[in-house]
Write a structure and sequence with these properties.
- The structure holds 2 protein chains of 2 kinds.
- In chain A, strand 1 and strand 2 (14-24) form a beta hairpin.
- In chain A, helix 4 (112-124) crosses helix 5.
- Chain A has helices spanning 40-47, 70-74, 92-97, 112-124, 140-153, 170-185, 198-204, 222-225, 228-235; strands at 2-11, 14-24, 29-33, 55-60, 63-64, 77-80, 158-161, 190-194, 207-211, 217-220, 239-245, 251-257.
- By secondary structure, chain A is an alpha/beta fold.
- Helix content of chain A is 31%, strand content 27%.
- Chain A folds into 2 domains: 2-76 and 156-257, P-loop containing nucleotide triphosphate hydrolases (Rossmann fold, 3-Layer(aba) Sandwich), CATH 3.40.50; 87-154, no CATH class.
- The relative contact order of chain A is 0.16.
- The two termini of chain B are 21 Å apart.
- Chain B is mainly alpha-helical.
- Chain B has one domain (26-350): ABC transporter involved in vitamin B12 uptake, BtuC, CATH 1.10.3470.10.
- In chain B, helix 4 (71-105) runs antiparallel to helix 12, helix 5 (118-131) packs antiparallel against helix 6 (136-162) and helix 13 (284-296) packs across helix 14.
- The chains are: A alpha/beta, B mainly alpha.
- At the A-B interface, helix 2 and strand 6 of A face helix 10 and helix 11 of B.
Amino acid sequence: MLEVRNASCGFTGRTILKDISFSIAAGELLCLLGPNGVGKTTLFRTILGSLPLLAGEILLHGENVSGWSRRRFATKVGYVPQAHTPPFPFQVLEVVTMGRTAHLGLFATPSAADSAIALEALDNLGIAHLRDSVYTEISGGERQLVLIARALAQQVEILIMDEPTSNLDFGNQIKLLEHIRKVVDEGRLGVILTTHYPNHALMYASKAVLLGRDQTVSIGLPEEVITEAYLRDAYQVEAQLFGVKNRQGKNFTVCIPTPQG
Amino acid sequence: MMFFYYGCCSFQPIQGEPDHDAMTKKLATLSVLFLALFFLSLAIGRFTVPVGTVAAILLSRLVSLPHYWSPEAETVLFTLRLPRILAAMLVGSALSVSGAAYQGMFRNPMVSPDLLGVSAGAGFGAALGMLLGFNRVSIQLCAFGCGLAAVGITYAVGVLLARKGEPVLTMILGGIIIGTLFTSFVSIIKFLADPYNTLPAITFWLMGSLASISLPDLSVAAGPILTGTLVLTALRWRLNVMSFGDEEARALGVRTGPLRLAVIVCATLMTATAVSISGIVGLVGLVVPHLARLLVGPNYTHLIPVSLVLGAIFLLAVDDLARVLFTVEIPLGIVTSLIGAPFFLYLLVNTRKGWV
């Protein structure tokens, strides 16, 4: 269980987010929403320790992480960056095995057991067939799944994902979120992810943290906090919320931008 | 050179998991190639010693054998060729391993071990030593010290400017500036140097040569080079992780700052040592890691050991050419560039994207 308590983040001399508090436990999918430049990435970088925490604390199971080593923190909290292209053509299995680094000694190389864990992670996401492919040559959606597999191989409790759906097509966005939801539902992992689509939060998240302009924050169930008023204030567009039913008869709320004029 | 050229390029880039058998086979092939070249290098030269005799002379040091060879053969082997061959292997390995490490560290396959100005610094040190009329050992020490100093300045500039942005980028920019600065210091010294004695000596040194290596030189150089190689070999898995960038490496549990410092210290010690005994030998640190990557893929677990062996083979082969091709010996740096540049172009043209 990760708890962010009264945290202020930003750079020295420029606070971007003030007094923000939320928590996430295993089995939860927390969606972080907010317009560009409101500090989503800054918040992530602060939690991950790339930026100093200006005020407040970050707790893991009630213990302040500020004195933790990189390695200890990396066995509890993982990070999934946006799909990218590294300079060298590693194989998919090699990339996923890099998730084991925090569990290895400084001078160690991964063992057969580590490869087995990496393979299991690939299998869990249904991409075991990619194990021998070259990471730089697979599609963007596959690369994103591989990075998630790497974080699964890291065997963390909390995963932080930076816009995992950003470079994906209409279908792959939904498929990826389904995968994430499935992994979260297994109950061992909590996921925090950012997205630019309020619908992703409405359809898949168990909790939403909305960052508005002027450093406002609202936290709650997605269908309760994502309101037409929030969308208007945060994104400065008109949007309407509708209730829909899927084929199995489950109710959803979706938002649709409504053109004016 | 030709056997080397064909031998290596007939390997296909690995598709699929680096099969253990295939990897073992490649390492075995390289080792055989390496040993064959070692004996060949002892045999060839102005004074040819048949390979059989070479083996017998080497063996006679271990067990007593009838001496059917001339004492000159033994002298040539042990005082001229063996130090030079060992030096070529040591320098080739040092440049290749540090080049491979730097390419991962700085996330750029176009990087060579003199990225942070070590060669320019060492060149300045050697030129200064010659201008001041130092002896051979002092010139080497001066080159070594100035190489370290140049990298130290670059590192300090990088750390100082890193607060303003990406640490890797600022360090590379710092390296370019410090390298240029030291190169212009060398030009000043050349301008001031006596054009009949010192100037040719400086110019020749800058072209690189292993001709005057002695065993004492080697025993001093072996320490830092082997230590650096050992540490980089031990850290090789982390180099994989570093090639994904600082932020990701940190999130995977790597302390990037201390690791980068360790890699820079090792690579700089190795390169400065190599340059101080051999002069500036270009392209080895750039080309050999690419060749190694072509053979075994980008995973540093295999890439570092293979770069080590390939670097030794490459520079030994090139140094052999430098001493036997013409009656007058060609400076080593010229030969490495003459062979390395077209070879590198060939690799770029003939391999699929990403494998070079």
